[in-house]
Amino acid sequence: MTDLATLALEVAREAGALLLERFGSPARGVGSKSSVTDLVSDADRDAEALIVRRLRAARPDDAIVAEEGTSRHGTSGLSWYVDPLDGTINYLYGIPHWCVTLACADGEGAIVGVIHDPSRLETFTAQRSRGAFVSQRRLAVSTEPDLGKALVATGFGYDAEVRRRQGTAVARVLPRVRDLRRFGSAALDLAWVAAGRFDGYFESGINPWDVEAGILIVREAGGRATRLKGIGDDPRPAVVATNAAIHEALRTLLA
Ligand code: IPD
């Protein structure tokens, strides 16, 4: 692995250990962000502080953009996108489906991506043009060629009006696929597309720290991950990630 990939892996695992140690205990410092449904706690903040401290020490010239507010300019041309705890609501409810995700990107997208799931001891990694792996095993997307038989994941934002529009998209897609899943972590949704556990994933209005690593991991696992201008009457940019066979069909259905 390159130095960047090793750093990303080590940092994600350290943050994962911090989060796992506190998982299931009463949450501290819980507050709301963009709406009453959008929560943050000391766990998110402390994991972000750990990751930012480690990245700053090892890569002082890189930019960092992280979910809980870190925004640092850099001069190296490389940027880190960090979600210290993706699946915050699951975490706070004691549901073991959350992860740490970080990506290092240049002007063409992520060059290194890590999604670490401490509850299952699974770490999904990819380096550009070097494939995607879960632990030591190479990842490959599913081979399902028929959208009507596809298991597709999605996610929702925290704003009520946004959710109304996302619900409209769900109503359109649901009768046209095997089934939909909403598990609550966009990064794990993408990792699971890469692993062939889902045939596809889509979500509008998603943030770069949620998806940069996952997009690289899906592509390196042989899948397609693309942006869509909007979904139905939701004008916000969306991400669509699938195996290669059903990609155009799902994009057409969503657009
Ligand atoms: C959220 C999760 C969720 C997705 C939301 C994200 P958070 O991230 O990834 O699955 O649907 O759009 O904001 O708030 O748990 O870090």
Task: Write the SSE topology.
Elements: H1 3-22, E1 31-32, E2 39-40, H2 42-58, E3 63-66, E4 71-72, E5 79-86, H3 88-92, E6 99-106, E7 109-117, E8 122-127, E9 132-134, E10 137-138, E11 151-154, H4 160-173, E12 179-181, H5 186-194, E13 200-204, H6 208-220, E14 224-228, E15 238-242, H7 247-254
Parallel strand pairs: 3-5, 11-12, 11-13
Antiparallel strand pairs: 1-2, 3-4, 5-6, 6-7, 7-8, 8-9, 9-10, 13-15, 14-15
Helix pairs in contact: 1-2, 5-6
This protein binds D-MYO-inositol-1-phosphate (IPD).
Folded structure, characterized:
The chain has 255 residues and is α+β, with helices and mostly antiparallel strands. It folds into two domains: 2-138, Fructose-1,6-Bisphosphatase, Chain A, domain 1; 147-254, D-Maltodextrin-Binding Protein, domain 2 (3-Layer(aba) Sandwich). It has seven helices and 15 strands. It has an eight-stranded mixed sheet, with helices on both faces. The protein has a five-stranded mixed sheet with strand order 12-11-13-15-14, sandwiched between helices. The chain is globular and about 50 Å long. The model has no long low-confidence stretch (mean pLDDT 95). D-MYO-inositol-1-phosphate is lined by residues 67, 83, 86-88, 155-157, 184-186, 203, 206, 210.
